[in-house]
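hey can u run this one w/ iron/sulfur cluster bound, need the structure tokens asap thx
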Amino acid sequence: MNNILKYLGDLFKGIGTLWTGMKVTAKYFYKNMPGARIFAGEIVTQQYPENRKTLQMFDRFKGEVTMPHNADNKHKCTGCGICEMNCPNGSIEVLTSMQTVDGKKKKVLDKHIYHLSMCTFCGLCVKTCPSDALAFGQGFEHAVFNRSALTKVLNKPGSELEKEEKKEAPKVETPKVEAPKAEAPKAE
Ligand code: SF4
Ligand code: SF4
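ok here u go:
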């Protein structure tokens, strides 16, 4: 008898969980029918792939790590290696060399290598970069035939570090303070 009750309990539990899942499916299936929005609420999925050329992802979407370059092919990466140190799974390799720039020896970025296939999109590299040199891109079609295609060099060929313009420190005028006049002590 106990076995039968347990069997029936499991059966109804299974039907209940199936119904929960089917309700979500049904909402999305009938979302475009008149009046269906009342039941469907906010639709969070996107139509794809027919509209891939016009599809815009959300602003906060993390498609892949990128290194923005300006119109002069300059980036902000100094090659400090902080993103590489902070990446929890070794998805970043920063290769640098010492070069003479403006008469001084400086560390210069050679290659900023990003292994998209290992990236978990945690965002630590983007958040901890002191130069604000990294950002998340909106690209999402990452299916490739060869895994090596998911290893990317983020600094573009021929690109270089964007020099920061030196800002002149504002002149601060010190207020003139008149020295108090010392009165000579009166002789009694
Ligand atoms: S991307 Fe940022 S943290 Fe990484 S090496 Fe370049 S400057 Fe440093
Ligand atoms: S998003 Fe996270 S896992 Fe991906 S490269 Fe940056 S630190 Fe590494």
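Residues 65-161 form a domain with the Alpha-Beta Plaits fold (CATH 3.30.70.3270). anyway lmk if its weird
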